[in-house]
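Here is my example:
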Amino acid sequence: MTWTEPSALERQAILRQARTIAIVGASDNPSRASYFVSTYLQAETTYDLWFVNPRLTELLGQKVYPSLADLPGEPDVVDVFRKASDLPQVADDAIAAHAKVLWLQLGLFDQDVADRATDAGLQVVMNRCLKVEHARFHGGLHLAGFDTGVIDSRRRR
């Protein structure tokens, strides 16, 4: 089976149906995208977040798991913040963890990985930010594509 990009309605359904999100490559560095996405999801959603990073033990007050195999259950979504060369192994781990969705963040695209995950029964989203998609579908983004209520380049007086 060949992967095809899910439509906006399909991505919206993924986010509505998900209850658990495993963030692979979660970082405690506030300048990393995974940290920003994690803080947003923790503050703005009711998802159970499972952070995955073999070098951390705690992040944002929650336990960090060394691998997908160590999670306390089956994740609905595996949100990936890893380099492209790591994607085949992460996909195999997501399949073994019985994930429903493999979500590759902005800049990550691998047709072979997507085809393999799709063949294993996972839905696959590539080159999209889960935080941006969530905000888009839940009223947090302006039509121009940015959050006009939170980010402002002007100094407050």
Remarks:
- The CA atoms of residues 91 and 117 lie 6 Å apart.
